[in-house]
Amino acid sequence: MKDAIWQAMYEECVVEKKTYSKLSVRGICQKVGIHHTSFYYHFEDKEAVFKYGIGLLMLDYLKIPVLERYQRPFSSAGHFFDTSPLQDLILSQNYDLEGSHLITKWTKAIMVEEAMCYLQLCSSYVEPKQLTARQLVETIFTVSQWSVEEGISSSTKKLDELYIQYTQNLTES
Length: 173
Hints:
Blueprint: H1 2-14, H2 25-32, H3 36-42, H4 46-57, H5 59-62, H6 66-71, H7 73-83, H8 85-92, H9 97-121, E1 124-125, H10 129-149, H11 156-167, E2 171-172
Antiparallel strand pairs: 1-2
Domain HTH tetR-type: 17-51
Protein name: TetR/AcrR family transcriptional regulator
Keywords: DNA-binding
């Protein structure tokens, strides 16, 4: 049932072009054909559905070896984002502040957990581990956003080099 609820939300966002902020639990329930009490049996609210779905959409990304994801984040993630339904969700919510914020929030949360696993593999890293993991993830997002905002069409290799430049003092592997 959880997957059906998520799929209905995803279809409303991506196929029907509804923004997250315009979605309603009632509408999702109607689409799935369930009573709202069934919805609340599985999820607390629509944000919980979004979090669940983003976790599902990130599964293929998490199959990329963790060392690769944090040593060459742009090269390793390029193919994933080119073919991922997550990219479609991101694009569908581009102009919805609430939807964009939640995608970023939950994607970063997953990536921080994974960055902590990466740090355990490093021979040394700057403590505290949670803060270092957050810094690695924030740097990925910052470099990505900067390249888009500045209209810089750098290769993924160049973006990886920039990321390494800004994080080299945080890890050594």
